[in-house]
Amino acid sequence: MVVMVKLFRGSSSSGGINDKIRTDALELVAGSGVCLSPEKRTASLTSLLLVRRDYRFEQVVRLWGHIHGTRGAYCVTEGLGPDRAGPRSHLYSINCVDWSLLPPPAEEMIPMTAGLKGRFQGDLSYEYENYDQKEEGEKPYEEETGTFVEELHLVIIVDQIDKAVGIVPRGGYMKTPLGPVHENKSFEGLSLTEAKKLSSDFHFTEPVNLKNKTLLEKADLDLSIDFLDSLEHDLPKGRVEVNDE
Length: 245
Fold this sequence. Notes:
Blueprint: E1 2-6, E2 21-22, H1 25-29, H2 38-54, E3 61-68, E4 73-79, E5 89-93, E6 100-101, H3 109-112, E7 127-136, E8 139-149, H4 150-165, E9 167-169, E10 173-175, E11 181-183, H5 192-195, E12 201-203, H6 215-218, E13 240-244
């Protein structure tokens, strides 16, 4: 079950470096102990400016998150192009100074890594043994199907997390008549009433359910902001809850 905690805040623009580098999400979860050290925070603000220049990202570079391992942690960031709903580039770093680009995930590799076991190690060359669940008669057993390096595991985990919990509020983004998606500069947050509805939150991935709606169902939609799948139709029912605090 995914528990969503919404913070009712108006939009603000601080200007300067934060227009290009976004680490403000860390402040929202710092109370839970998830934060960067002052040294890494300072290093990331400086190094990510160079990342934006070297990789020619047209929009902001924002800190995606931390994935902890037994011997180290990966700091992951993403660079965005002019279309906010388009492909994103992910980079990782051990020290928040040197960043390397993660390759895009191959769809055929996702089911092959479903049987991976074990925690992240903090070493991209570490090899996992992959097992496939099989059944012979009434006795289930596991069969080794090969090995995968941790880099592949990291690539697929980042992609799966993005697809599973990449959520944006209704109205936060707008789709232009030409196709690209941009942040809605006039969006100031959801009202308390609207924020309690799952229909006010969208998966920030390629829509699936929207394509299956009839013309009658689409008649009441504002296609400039209702171009994604809402959480209200997620199955099984109850897998997502909204808690207002």
